[in-house]
Specification:
Oligomer: single chain
Distance between the termini: 48 Å
CATH class of the largest domain: Mainly Beta
Number of domains: 5
Helix content: under 10%
CATH topology of the largest domain: Methylamine Dehydrogenase, Chain H
Strand order of the largest sheet: 1-2-3-4
Radius of gyration: 25 Å
CATH architecture of the largest domain: 7 Propeller
Shape: globular
Largest sheet: 4 strands, antiparallel
Number of helices: 10
Structural class: mainly beta
């Protein structure tokens, strides 16, 4: 890896930036992930960059041979993607939080000069959380935007209670027509059979669009606890509710002190060859799991026709990966490259693995999957073949060659070289595409370009100037790379309203080089962009001890926390502040360190302190040699406490409930629903106090374990898992173990 810092250029460019980098204390951090944050204008003389935290599109002049800031165009909140129309040159900016697209006309005022010529011509309102945009069709006639299957502006119903439907929406606009703000008479919404999408790509001829699921899954799901035979490994087959079930939980079933663990759910994975849901022992659980997960990852849409109605789904590709981040196409062969990670959540336990299996240092593998659209072949290639994941702990020297969390890619015009932004490694990987497609590449730090600023998440390739522009999310900056010498030549920080607590703490979520010995794992491997991965994991540890549960309970008396906690879905890092103990069970709590007082935020309600108790996971889960220092963990906790949930995607603009929502509100706050009180008795909803379904208390509900009363704020993200015959799009649902 090579870095050249040309300080005189940095000083010059910095002096020409419209507003110097500024850090504020009142910024609200939604931690939106970059998707396509950079683009070159059609003439190649401008670089466009989405300033995610500052809600602007930054325009840089390239006529001097390097980026010089020209102007800032205000757009919607958290702009994560930009693309330029190939004919008229308008820039379409995708605003992830505003659920909109800003269309920027660079010649809106032709009589003016400089930035005065530019303005936002119109804003289109879309479905929830749009992420990517491309143009396709003859002369780029159609604009394609990915969104979730929900939202105030959606043209179709969210169908939250309908099983067996796609929740992957692609909005298509005919750019030869002038779209209305609400797009009702100018857009077509194509509904595809996967969960929420993220990335788009276009074939070299511009006539086929590829759309990928984000949380695509890996054909794993959970056998809910009541359908697992009691008795652990010693249990034989049993019959429950007329279902013939193959047995109990595989061992070990006791902790290091010999205490039996609770009866819990069991993660199973679909075996295509046997046509069965199987656990780690190869037992068939088909009678417990009625649904099927077809795992359709990437969809091909034919855009060659002359109308919105002519756009049709023509192909799909399966088995691409678990979390699909970005896509690119080879301009010569047409092959599709998909940057992704593959999860191994069917493997149980964290820790050393002394008495069982472990995912320590090997939760996800970082990959680029190659799809050949001509024959339909799907070939995943792991990027870190130099790592022997069976060696625990790993040799720290390995991380110098590792690449983690691959995001945006760029391919040279001759199709020979692929660049990939390794978000979790602070590098850009450089691959010979022939070696990549044949799997003959060897991880080598001499084929990796170190990037300052941290979190490279976007690329724009400028072959005319032999430069690669890299968007860095950690510091909200731009790095310029010389593609001949493969060195970073300088780095440009953009204006940011983020406080130092955000910029200093962000790296502890994503930086795999700092988080793990092998340089491939980070907290962000599962908590994608501070959220979750839609998977269940069994991260218990049979080599640990029980712990007392000192949290406050609304009902009942708590049992100790068993280290054999069973399958539990990944929880979001959003909205933790002020909501009491952490984890489904509340087992990350400081009730054992200081008196609990809700008003003062101490003990079980000291959430910052509770978060710091995740420090051992850097060793037991990620495979780091040691925990973070107290200062580092404090920085991480401060950053994490500041991540919040986006607004309710179904709330009307006037914040008034009507129809079925009004009926739900009446039920929630109205009649007694469970013998104790109404829904709000336990699932406290008090916006003024920051409670959205929980006030931090726990409750005894007759389960095999006690749980903290969960919040309800992200239920809309978990829709799509229905355990009934037929294909579904999600393997996990609403409950702690991923069952419905």
């Amino acid at each position: 890896m090579k870095i050249i810092k040309l300080l005189f250029l940095l000083a010059f460019i910095g002096s020409n930036f419209a507003v110097a980098p500024a850090l504020g204390q009142n910024y609200t951090n939604f931690e939106s992930g970059p998707v396509r944050p950079m683009a070159l204008t059609n003439d190649g003389n401008r670089l466009l960059v989405t300033n995610i935290p500052d809600a602007h599109l930054e325009v840089f002049d390239l006529s001097a041979g390097y980026p010089v800031h020209e102007c800032s165009i205000p757009v919607g909140l958290d702009p994560v993607a930009v693309d330029v129309h190939p004919q008229n040159g308008d820039a379409w900016v995708v605003n992830h939080l505003s659920d909109s697209v800003s269309i920027i006309d660079f010649e809106a005022n032709p009589s003016a000069t400089g930035c005065a010529r530019i303005e936002v011509a119109r804003t289109l309102l879309l479905g929830d959380e749009p992420r990517d945009i491309v143009f396709a069709g003859t002369n780029g006639r159609f604009a394609f935007v990915t969104t979730a299957h929900r939202g105030q502006n959606s043209l179709i119903d969210a169908e939250y209670t309908t099983p067996g439907i796609g929740r992957h929406d692609v909005w298509v606009f005919d750019t030869q027509q002038t779209p209305d703000t609400f797009a009702a008479n100018r857009a077509r919404v194509i509904q595809l059979f996967s969960d929420t999408p993220r990335a788009l790509a276009v074939s070299p001829d511009g006539l086929t669009v590829y759309s990928a699921a984000f949380h695509s899954g890996n054909q794993t799901t959970v056998v809910t606890e009541p359908l697992v035979c009691n008795g652990g490994a010693a249990a034989g087959p049993c019959q429950i509710d007329g279902l013939n079930l193959p047995g109990g939980l595989p061992g070990p079933n006791t902790d290091v002190d010999g205490n039996p663990g609770p009866e819990v759910g069991l993660i199973v994975k679909w075996n295509t060859q046997t046509g069965a849901w199987e656990d780690e022992l190869g037992r068939n659980w088909n009678e417990a799991i009625q649904m099927r997960l077809p795992d359709i990852d990437v969809f091909a849409l034919d855009a060659s026709g002359g109308s919105l109605a002519s756009i049709q789904l023509v192909d799909d590709f399966r088995g691409v990966g678990t979390l699909l981040f970005n896509m690119a196409t080879n301009p010569q062969s047409g092959n599709i490259y998909v940057a992704n990670t593959e999860a191994f959540n069917e493997v149980r336990f964290e820790g050393s693995g002394a008495r069982g299996t472990t995912v320590q240092g090997h939760l996800h593998e970082n990959r680029i999957t190659v799809i050949d659209p001509t024959d339909g072949s799907v070939t995943p290639w792991a990027l870190n073949t130099h790592v022997d994941f069976t060696q625990i702990p790993a040799d720290p020297a390995l991380k110098s060659r590792s690449l983690a969390t691959p995001l945006e890619m760029a391919v040279t015009a001759d199709g020979a070289t692929l660049y990939v932004a390794a978000f979790g490694s602070g590098k850009v990987g450089v691959y010979d595409t022939a070696e990549l497609e044949s799997g003959t590449f060897v991880p080598d730090e001499n084929s990796q370009i170190a990037i300052t600023g941290g979190g490279p998440g976007g690329l724009a390739l400028d072959e005319a100037r032999n430069q690669l522009y890299v968007f860095t999310r950690f510091d909200n900056g731009i790095s310029v790379v010389d593609t001949v010498s493969e060195t970073e030549t300088f780095h440009i920080p953009m204006h940011t309203p983020e406080s130092t607590s955000i910029t200093d703490g962000r790296r502890f979520l994503y930086d795999a080089n700092h988080s793990s010995n092998n340089g491939t794992q980070s907290c962000g491997s599962c908590h994608a962009f501070g959220d979750f991965d839609s998977l269940a994991w069994n991260l218990g540890n049979p080599d640990e001890h029980e712990e007392l549960n000192l949290n406050p309970f609304q009902i009942g008396n708590p049992s100790p926390f068993s280290p054999l906690k069973g399958a539990m879905t990944t929880q979001s890092l959003r909205g933790m502040a002020g909501n009491g103990p952490l984890h489904w069970r509340g087992d990350k709590s400081c009730a054992d360190e200081e008196p609990t007082n809700r008003t003062n935020g101490t003990g079980a309600f000291n959430v910052h302190c509770a978060f710091e108790k995740f420090n051992p996971a850097f060793v037991g889960l990620l495979g780091r040699s040691s925990q973070l220092t107290p200062t580092e963990m404090d920085q991480f906790a401060t950053f994490a406490m500041g991540i919040i949930y986006p607004p309710n995607p179904e709330m009307s603009f006037n914040r008034a409930h009507s129809g079925i929502a009004a009926q739900g509100e009446t039920l929630y706050f109205g009649r007694n629903t469970d013998g104790v009180g109404n829904c709000n008795t336990c699932h406290t909803a008090d916006r003024s106090a920051g409670f959205f379904g929980t006030d931090g208390d726990s409750s005894q509900e007759g389960e095999t374990q006690e749980f903290k009363i969960p919040h309800l704020r992200n239920m809309y993200q978990k829709t799509g898992m229905f355990n009934q015959p037929g294909d579904q799009v999600r393997g996990t649902g609403y409950l702690h173990d991923g069952s419905i």
